[in-house]
Structure formats: structure tokens, C-alpha cells
Amino acid sequence: MKFSLFVGLLVPFVAAKVSYNGWKAYKIDTVHSHEAVTNSLKDFHHVSLGCGHSRGALEVAISPESLDAFRALDLNTTLLNDDLGVEIAEEGMFEAYNPTTKAQGLVAALPNKSYFKSYHNLEQHFQFLSDLHASLPNNSEIFSAGKSVQNRELRGIHLWGNGAQGKNPAIIWHGNVHAREWITAMGYKNNDALIRDTLDSYDFYIMPIVNPDGFVYTTKTDRLWRKNRQKYPRHSCIGTDINRNWPYKWDVPGGASEYPCDETYRGVEAGDTPENQALVNHTMTISKNTGIRSYVDWHSYSQLILLPYGYSCSAKANNLRTQMDVASGVADAIRKVHGLEFEYGPTCETIYQTSGESSDWVFDVAKAEFSWGIELRPRRLTGDGFVIPANQIVQSGEEIWAGMRYLFARL
Asked: Where is the signal peptide (predicted)?
């Protein structure tokens, strides 16, 4: 069986009530003035986008009422998108979830191909996990790592093969993403040797949406929302960047923001978000019980494979050469599918400094052998979308699946 429907863990955002009609997206050259540019933008109604493809650049969306003043700054900019509102409107709406594919060895049905041609809401994602479990009742379980600020579950699915449940080293995937990894189960039941061997040797813990409050908010209110929905008594701005809140190198200067209104606000204290506390506790339990072989935190966009470390450009992972070698093979496997190039390397050297982020914590504290952040297509913000359009879900899944197969073979 060809697993072309591995959907690649895509960020599941769709049209929202906040209007972005007339908003323009720019890439700003910040090679010599990153801090100055960042400070100047605080005076404008804007939203930071993505991570930027390389050091020395910042990608932002500027509101129509701020355009003239922004242009008056006379920054070195490149227009990336002339109207984000048009793009958001073209992304499509949620479509019904219908589990209609029945494969040999499965107790219940799984989604057919049409499921992967549109995005789905939180309830549909949770229903999907439940149906996947129902199809493999002896090789899976649904778990909850904890609750969000607004009391939503951080729900995931645990998959295993012929080995005893929870006895093998772990492969963990996190993301506020579409994690429709049903092909892993399909491969196991259809005698794909690599998938069978991987599931017999490792336990998968897949949490597709670790920021459920933020996810729901993007689908109902603000399409470009990034953080969680945590409120702070002394500030009017809402939310913490969960991926700057991990309790490791949290307060390293330059890797996150101390300003509550910024997109990369790190929180009042390390690990003070309920979402992060749940993820830390769940991950550490797995680490202590079986160890973690591989961890991936999925994001979009930029086409990057990011390795430890983010907090420092001089610190080197003790197995960096091995991680670089495997990442090179993963990037090559991805390229062979649809020709897309994925850059790879330590986070700080490849993009910029990031403190209090997941892959550093999982590598140094939870002791995963491979601990990565992967930024999916597109490479940069263009008219094709800074979020993957629904018509690219399958293509992105195909290329990322090829990369993951290479990774599994090297574990």
C-alpha cells in the first residue's frame, strides 16, 4: 500500500470573524537592526507571522490603518502578500467528517481520501482519534495529558504494535496541527514491513492539538491568533506562547519576549501555563518509564528541520553529528517526493535564538535521542499561502511521510 495520505501534520486554521481584508504581509530586513525594528513595530497594529526563513528577517502582517505610517519608516521590505483577507477567504470551510474506509484487520472504518481535502474543527479531530482507537482497540488508547486554561482536554492517541503496551521506547509528536496519522495503523495492518517493525519496537504518543483554546479561537474569532488564552491580572493582553514557556533556559536573554502583548511572550514564570505543565508531566512520565527515542514538534511554515539548540548558538548537542546526518537524509527523502527543499540545522544557527522551547527541554531534560521542530511547507510567505491551503494537505502529507519513513529506518 502506498501511504500517500499521510497528511503531514498541518496547522488547521480556517476563516475567522476578525477581518484581515486589506492587511498586507511584508518581509523586513533586520540584519543590522532587529531590536530597533521590533520596537518600532509596537506602535503599529500588526501580527508577526511564521519564523522567517532565515536570520536577519522578520515577516509581519500590517493592518490597513497602519500602512502609511509603516511605509514612512522606510524599512528595507519585500511585499509578500497583498491582501491576507482574500487568501483566508480562499482557504475553505470545515467539511463533514465521514469515516468510510475499511481496511483488512481493522475493526471499524477509517476516513476515506476526501477527509484529507479539507480542514476540520476540534470536535472532529477528537472524533477522529476516537474512531482510530475503535479501529485498533487492541493496539491503541485515547489519553488526556491534562487540561487547558479554558478546561479543554489535551487529548492524544497512544499506538503500539505486538509489544506490550507502554513497554517500548517512545516516539512523541506534538502540535497545534492536523495529526491524521492513520496511515501508521493502516501500514501495520497491511504488512508494511517498516511500519510494522516501527510499531513493534516503539510506542507512539500523538497529540495533534496541544493548544486547544488557541485553536478554537482561531476557528471562531481571530484567524491569526498564536498564543494560548491565558489572562493576567495586571495586563490587558491575553495569552502566552506555549513554546516559549517550557521550564528550561526560559529566562535566557534574547530568546523570548517579556512583554505580554508580544507574540512570543514567555509568561510570568517558567512553565506557568496549564498546557505546558500538562505536557511536561506527561512527557517526563514517558521518559522515566521507557525513554524517548524521537520527538517532533510540528509547525508551519518555512520548510525547516530544527535541531537543538535554540537557546544558544554556541551550545552543541552531544550527538549533533548524528542528528545532522539523519536530518540530511530526512530532507533528501522529502525533496524526492515533490521537489521541495527543507533546510536543517540547530535552531539558533538556522533561524534565530529561542528560549524556553520544547525541543531543547525534551532533549536535555527528558533525554530524547532525536528532538526536533519541523516547519512544514510553504518555504516562505507568498500568494500560495503562509498556511497550507486545503488543496495541498495531501501533497504535504506525502512528502513528510517519506521523511518520517527515513527517520523510522534510522532509529
From this structure: 1-16
